């Protein structure tokens, strides 16, 4: 391409030669305008202008838009009035946060599975799903008008320096979405005893409307300064009560409520030490984000299980907070729950597993998270 430069005779007047690329692309000279700043190319002894396309001519520079042309940057100037027309007829919630449905009891949000949210098999990971659940929950609080100055806390909670902390999450996955798929996440809340709140989720494939993931969780209130659990004040209860919906995403018969055994050095099949939380692992409540524990749990899972099995169910019980200064250990024990099968053609299918996990402090062995998971062979469960 021909550089946009000023010749010697016109340099004093700031007049630039018309680049050949403009003539080749049929771009009119009046379709461009100079920006305020100019920059010299000392090596070539030429002065170069940084140009922008005006609203009248920007459509004709599409092929070079956003690229450096021999040291010159051609930048697009958007006509927002014209651009906004491209969204005409599109549902607003698809491009913004979400919307309330079912009489404002359920909050719904759409997501596209991005390339950085998939694993080696090109499907969304368990961490991706948990991030979507968390994002929808926070947007639910914000869109409801309840959000105070805390991370998901209500106005009355913020006045009392209280925050929500999760004590338990159980998630069941029927199918993992692929890169580019659109999913619909629905969430709602209900009471959990006298001082807790239950949050439920369903994830649907937006194209088929099939429910592909269900999840339930229990939340309690904690003082953000003392870091101690607190009773739910009546003012907070009255804030959230109008949003309660008595519906369970996972029925009691299939909810994993059994006690999770504590692992030790003697009972664990594998132990991974030296896991260090990073600054980027911290959330706005000044402790490790709940989703980060899943990655540490998987650090001690055998590689052949990660490659050949789908993580179809997971329950996490949170015992205490974790800060950036803590060094952690991940313990795992694998148990066969469905033996190998021989098919009619004589080939064997892999066994299914249940795994038990523990994330603990490396120094004093204090428990942080207990977890249990189920793994189904990709060969049998496609």
List keywords for this structure.
382 residues, alpha+beta, Thiol Ester Dehydrase, Chain A, twelve-stranded antiparallel beta sheet, four-stranded mixed beta sheet, 8 helices, disordered N terminus, acyl carrier activity, Acyl-[acyl-carrier-protein] hydrolase
Fold topology:
Layout: H1 8-11, H2 20-25, E1 32-41, E2 46-53, E3 68-69, E4 72-76, H3 80-83, E5 99-101, E6 106-112, H4 126-144, H5 155-159, E7 162-173, E8 182-192, E9 196-205, E10 211-223, E11 229-230, H6 234-240, E12 270-275, H7 292-298, H8 303-308, E13 309-318, E14 328-338, E15 341-342, E16 348-349, E17 352-361, E18 367-377
Parallel strand pairs: 2-4
Antiparallel strand pairs: 1-2, 3-4, 5-6, 6-8, 7-10, 7-13, 8-9, 9-10, 10-11, 12-14, 13-18, 14-17, 15-16, 17-18
Offer a concise description of the structure.
GO terms for molecular function: acyl carrier activity; fatty acyl-[ACP] hydrolase activity. The chain is 15% helix and 35% strand. With 382 residues, it is α+β, with helices and mostly antiparallel strands.
